[in-house]
Amino acid sequence: MDKRYQVFISSTYSDLKEERSKVMQTVMALDCIPSGMELFSAIDTEQLEFIKKVIDDCDYYILIIGGRYGSMTEDGISYTEQEYNYAVSKGIPVLAFLHNNINQLTCDKIDLDSSKREKLEAFRDKVKTGRLVQFWNNADQLNGQVAVSLTKTIKTYPAIGWVRGNTPANEETLQEINELRKELDELRKYKRETQSANYEINNIASLDESISLSGTHGTSRYQWEITLSWKDLFGLISPFFL
């Protein structure tokens, strides 16, 4: 079934126009649907609620951090960070790309306000915690990193995606796919639990310890009994295992 994935591109805008433009072209070249602030004429509290609904419809979330923290809400948090927080809370796979050295950027691409610089550094630290991030120095390098990372993420974490309305699909197939997803989630949960569990088995016999065996043989019901070590026992029966 031919499907396309919707990708939300989040960043500050005026300082990263070139980078965003190239990333959007790459996303489209990968047959994905880009979404971002280009769709909105202005950013305010009401628009942020609408953006959250757009993020809900997205399969993947790309975060690009340059040298600016960006416009802030009344709570003192940038719209970019709020978008990121929301995407994480919804469990959407996040691909984060941080500028390698913001001190090398020109004045028009960085925050001159010290409080914003502190917020930006704290935001960078939060994004780097608990996930793999990539660092870029220019728009071309960022573009290549996005192409490779998004392709790998789609392969590793396939999402729901979008399918054309005229694509044939019956209810039985969709139900089967849903059941397979549930089974996959259960298997992943079981794997996590078994990997974290600490199993301990006590009272295991050593190879030099002895064991007594007894039984009957033949039509005469001949009684037999033997005592031998586990090492000798395995030596006798192991050829039959082969």
Question: TL;DR of this structure?
Answer:
With 242 residues, the protein is α/β, with parallel strands linked by helices. It has helices spanning 17-29, 45-56, 79-89, 114-128, 139-156, 171-196, 230-241; strands spanning 6-10, 33-36, 60-65, 94-99, 133-136, 210-217, 222-229.
Describe the protein's topology:
Layout: E1 6-10, H1 17-29, E2 33-36, H2 45-56, E3 60-65, H3 79-89, E4 94-99, H4 114-128, E5 133-136, H5 139-156, H6 171-196, E6 210-217, E7 222-229, H7 230-241
Parallel strand pairs: 1-2, 1-3, 3-4, 4-5
Antiparallel strand pairs: 6-7
Helix pairs in contact: 1-5, 2-3
Explained architecture:
The chain has 242 residues and is an alpha/beta fold. It is built from seven helices and seven strands. It has helices at residues 17-29, 45-56, 79-89, 114-128, 139-156, 171-196, 230-241; strands at residues 6-10, 33-36, 60-65, 94-99, 133-136, 210-217, 222-229. Helix 2 packs parallel to helix 3 (79-89). The longest helix has 26 residues, at 171-196. The mean pLDDT is 86.
Mean pLDDT: 86
Spans with pLDDT under 50 lasting ≥5 residues?
A: none
Helix fraction, binned, reads: 40-55%
The string of secondary-structure elements, in order, is EHEHEHEHEHHEEH
Could you give the count of β-strands?
7
> Which class do the helix and strand fractions yield?
alpha/beta
Q: Main beta sheet: strand number and arrangement? A: 5 strands, parallel
**Which strand order spans the largest sheet, edge to edge or round the barrel?**
2-1-3-4-5
Q: CA-to-CA gap between the ends? A: 46 Å
Strand share of the residues?
15-25%
The number of helical segments is: 7
Shape: elongated
Spatial extent as radius of gyration: 30 Å
